[in-house]
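Researcher: Checking consistency across runs. Here is Rhomboid family intramembrane serine protease again:
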Amino acid sequence: MFSNRSREPILNLPAVVAWSIGGLIAIHLLRTFLPEDTDFRILIDWAVIPARWSVAYGGVEAQEVLSALRHASPSGEASPFVALGQYVLQNEDGRPWTAVTYALLHGSWSHVLINSIWLAAFGTPIARRCGAARFFALAVLSAIGGAVLYAYMNALQIMPMIGASAAVSGMMAAASWFMFAPADWHPEGRPTQPHERPRERLIDIVRNRQVLIFLAVWFAANYVFGFVQPLGVTDASVAWEAHIGGFLVGLGLFPVLDPLPARQSRFTA
C-alpha cells in the first residue's frame, strides 16, 4: 500500500539559499579546473586587497606600502611579498567591486563548505522571513561592511582576503533579533516558527541570556580562529575583522529590512 503524501526533502532550504550555496560551490569547483595563472589572476582581480584600496582611496602612496613590505622582510627586494605588492599596486586601481565579489571566492573546499553550512543555518530563517530581495540586500551589505572594516584595520595588507564569512556573520546577527524570541501563537492555531516571531527590541536582546550566550560563543570562536588558529582547523589566517564588520552591519541593518513589526514589550518592571 502506498501513501499519497509527498516526502519531505532532507534539506528544506528556501530556493534563494539553495541557489546561493550552489553558486558558491560551483564557483569553487570551476576554479579547480582553471590553470594556476588564470586562477591567480581571478584572485587578484576579485578579492579584497586592503593596500590597493589604501592607495586608490586612502591617500597612501604605493611606495609607502612597498617600503613597509621591504622592512618587514629579511630578504628585502627579493621578498615574494614585495613582488606581489608591486604587481598589485602597479596601476593604483582600487577595483571597488571587490567589496562584494570577494565573498564569492574561497580558499579551499573546507572553507566553502563551512560557510555553506552556516549560510544554510542562518540564511534560511532570514530568507523565509524577508524574501529573496532582502536576503540578498543583507548579504551584500554585510559583505561590504566586513570588507571595509578589514581594509581599515589592515591598511597596508597586500594579501587577498576572500570568503563569504562576513555575509554569513551578517545573517547570524540578523537572526539573533528573532531566533531566541519566545514563541507566540500563530493565527492558524499553532506555535509560531522562529522566523514568524516578532523582532525583539534591542534592550530585550541585551537582557536575553540565550542571545548573550550565542554572541559570546560567536565572538570567542572568532578570537580562537583569528588569533590561536588551531592546527588542522583552518587552511589560512581567518579575517576576524571581516566577521565583526559583517556582524555589526547585519545587527544594525536588520530592523530596517525586517518586514514584521517589533515586539512592543516583553519584560515588565
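Researcher: Does this match what you'd expect to see?
Model: One thing to look at in this run: The mean pLDDT is 82.
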